[in-house]
Amino acid sequence: MLLSQSCEEFLKENPLSIETPETFMQTESGINSLVGSAYLDLRVWYGRENGWDFTEAGTDIYGRGYDNRSAGFCTYSSALSGEEQERMGAIWYELYVGVNTCNFILSQIDDSPVDNTPFLLKRKAEVSFLRAHYYWQIVETWGGVYLSTEPTTEATHEAQRSTVEEFYEVIFNDLNTALTIFEQLETEGTQNLYHDYGRIDKAITEAFLARMYLYKEDYVNAEAYANRVIDNYGFSFISSWEELWGLENYVNSEVIWPIVYSGNPTYMTPAIRNQASIDNNTGLPVLWETYGGIPQREGGNQGLVMFQIRYEEIPSSGWGMTRDVENGRGFLRWMPTRFFIELFDETIDQRWGSFQNVWISNDEASIPQYRLDPASETGYQTELYYNGTLVEWPESLDLTPMFSVGDTAIVLTRHPIDTTKYMRLRYNLPEVAGQPSRDYYMPYYIQPERKYIIIDINQMYEINPSTGIYAQSRVYFPINGKYRDNTISSTDISGSKRDIWALRLANMYFIAAEAALKQGDADGAYDYILILANNRAIGGDGSGMLSTYGVNSGADVDIDFILDESARELATEHIRWFELKRTGKLVERARAHNLEAARNIEEFHNLRFIPQAMLDALYNSEEFGQNPGY
């Protein structure tokens, strides 16, 4: 139990080696520490590589990037790597740690001697919500697996499955318990006591209930709870998409539930122990390695690196670019699908502004030079060709830079270009290791006047006819910049202090729109989406933006359009895979829009595989069983 309470930030880490769990329940500070630890496993999922593997990869909008470490989540390949097993096992383990912490607190809190009823009720409501949330993640990931509302205090090697319906009975009981308590505290005027930013409250509980009622197919209540959140808590849209995602503005009027991260560097380095592996010398669980293992709860929000490309390697020697804090460090984990990129119309939709597709030169040393006499250069020779003709430079340009720091260096465009209007760089490769000398054209085009590299959508998503998947190495694509952070101290930092938003106002409008549509009220669904569109359209013309996307009234609204629009709004926000699964669209849309996933995905992939380490630990593993299809 590693967390203690402060008035400034309730996720403060503090080793407490001499206490027992029961003694924590004797004081307010001890209870705060335990409840803080119940929140901690949220940071296993939200803002972490594992969480995006489980929620964005392998959908209609994100596939495998060049340096993905667990491609099976992107491609649904049956050949699972050891890393995929590790990641699955780590998430299983951590979610059940979160559940067990909640189970312990809930088993003890009603009998606590602490004489502060509002405090105890508030913390009980928070933990009830958290258990519901962890069980939602578990049941939607793996289906009817192990369910318990009692704390586990010693190792057990037998487990029984429960049904999905039984999971949801617990989920709704917990959420209704939390809501009843929050309503009681509100009646008594104590709802704002013992509350910090990021803690569960009534608004968060009602917002999550709205989502859960969609899973229950209770569309009346889903719409009603979404409207409660829309109407009753003062949430409002920020009409500027850029301002919404500005680093200085991540606490704002659209955020319903933030997952809190810390800017303290002490908490930015993963150092959690792997309970499944014991060090024979110390008798303690070993540390998860930063590289080669699966860091979990500790560390920052990893979004600043996960969706980034290696712009400094286009081409390999750099084209006026070097890695810096402003542009970020590329991990290349997931590549947006062509379908996703083409969902946007950047002339009318502010949300395309999340994507970075232009890089401004920051490195004088790697700016290419005009070369009057390529043969005078050592190594290989270079020549620029325009429509197959060698370009002749004036003598005054010889060995001068083609552009300057501060000029455009790289452009990735979502539109096809007329390649006959662009230059190409030809390498005259010398004879090497018995290979004859040859000419090689760089696979990029160069703008003739300004000399920046331009890569169009056809190059980014070129198909290899023999394999039916991308011919290029999935290394360049417009990057999702929702999690940019140029306040980090160096490019070696792979975690940010900025919070992750688990629920925000836009989620409520999508829930209400889908619920209205399912009740036969297509016009009502259009009205909900139009309110959101008015705040996302350039110039505020939401109806014009929706018309551009083929929707002019309720008659044009269907579940696929709602999913298209939610992709534009909510991509990378830890919900896509679950939403596709819930609406019965995961297999259909992955097959239609994700080339690598389409080759393998089947209906059984609506559940994930149970980690082998868990099955190996069970004496009744054959009875418990792997999920079908795996």
Task: Describe the 3D structure.
α6 packs antiparallel against α7 and α7 (117-142) runs antiparallel to α8 (164-188). A hairpin with a 2-residue loop joins β10 (381-386) and β11 (389-390). The chain has a seven-stranded mixed β-sheet with strand order 9-12-15-14-13-10-11. A two-stranded antiparallel ribbon has the order 1-2. Among the domains are: 265-299, no CATH class; 306-480, no CATH class. The chain contains 23 helices and 17 strands. The longest helix is centred in the N-terminal third of the chain and has 27 residues, at 82-108. It is globular and about 90 Å long. The chain is of the alpha+beta class and 630 residues long. It has helices spanning 21-24, 28-40, 42-45, 49-55, 72-75, 82-108, 117-142, 164-188, 202-215, 219-232, 241-244, 303-306, 338-342, 457-460, 505-518, 522-536, 542-548, 559-570, 576-582, 586-593, 595-598, 612-616, 621-624; strands at residues 3-4, 12-13, 62-64, 255-259, 273-278, 285-287, 334-336, 355-356, 358-360, 381-386, 389-390, 408-412, 423-429, 438-446, 453-455, 479-480, 500-504.
For the sheet with most strands, the description reads: 7 strands, mixed
User: What is the end-to-end distance?
Assistant: 35 Å
Which strand order do you get reading across the main beta sheet?
9-12-15-14-13-10-11
Helix content: 25-40%
The general outline is globular
SS content category: alpha+beta
Question: What's the number of helices?
Answer: 23
Fraction in beta strands: 5-15%
Task: Look at the structure and give the mean pLDDT.
Answer: 89
* Spans where pLDDT lies below 50 across 5 or more residues: 1-8, 13-18, 269-273, 288-295
**Rounded to an integer, what's the Rg over CA atoms?**
27 Å
Tell how many strands the DSSP assignment holds. Answer: 17
